[in-house]
């Protein structure tokens, strides 16, 4: 049970040792995704999620932050540098791609998500990256409002057709 009072958001870089914490925090967003699109998402499997995050965070490309309030982990942001070579149609791009971001429901609207994105932006800036990128499912309108409040703008639409 997480109980939060007015507190300052504290951030730290996550390591593979934080995989269990991140897997637990991920369950809220995984549940949202599973309820909205069960044909796209797997049931919650904390052990599998923990193994995934441990592997990713042990690698060279991943970067993540854990946010806490009052000493309790309440959010995480998991990202990786994305490098795309130039081709005849698009320019070379070096960005920080945010794969996952979750804030425990009781800690929302307390600056946790904003603090994590500020850390990601600082990381991108200091590593010479040109920006942050992310994607979000259409059903997650609350997240869209949050991302736009942070200055993100929609820039591509992806279509799907199941066979």
From TrEMBL:
The keyword Lipoprotein does not apply. Keywords: Acyltransferase, Transferase. SUPFAM superfamilies: Acyl-CoA N-acyltransferases (Nat). One of its GO terms (molecular function) is acyltransferase activity, transferring groups other than amino-acyl groups. The keyword Transferase applies. Residues 9-163 form the N-acetyltransferase domain. InterPro entries: Acyl_CoA_acyltransferase (IPR016181), Bact_Acetyltransf (IPR050832), GNAT_dom (IPR000182). This is GCN5-related N-acetyltransferase.
């Amino acid at each position: 049970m997480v109980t939060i009072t007015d507190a300052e958001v504290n951030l730290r870089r996550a390591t593979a040792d934080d995989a269990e914490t991140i897997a637990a925090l991920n369950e809220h967003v995984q549940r949202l995704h599973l309820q909205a699109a069960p044909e796209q998402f797997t049931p919650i499997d904390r052990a599998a999620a923990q193994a995934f995050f441990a592997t990713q965070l042990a690698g060279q490309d991943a970067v993540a932050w854990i946010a806490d309030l009052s000493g309790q982990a309440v959010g995480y942001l998991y990202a990786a540098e994305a490098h795309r070579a130039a081709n005849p149609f698009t320019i070379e791009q070096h960005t920080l791609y945010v794969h996952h971001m979750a804030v425990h429901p009781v800690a929302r609207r307390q600056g946790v998500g904003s603090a994590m994105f500020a850390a990601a932006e600082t990381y991108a800036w200091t590593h010479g990256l040109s920006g942050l990128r992310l994607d979000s499912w259409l059903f997650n309108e609350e997240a869209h409002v949050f991302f736009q409040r942070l200055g993100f703008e929609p820039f591509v639409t992806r279509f799907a057709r199941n066979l």
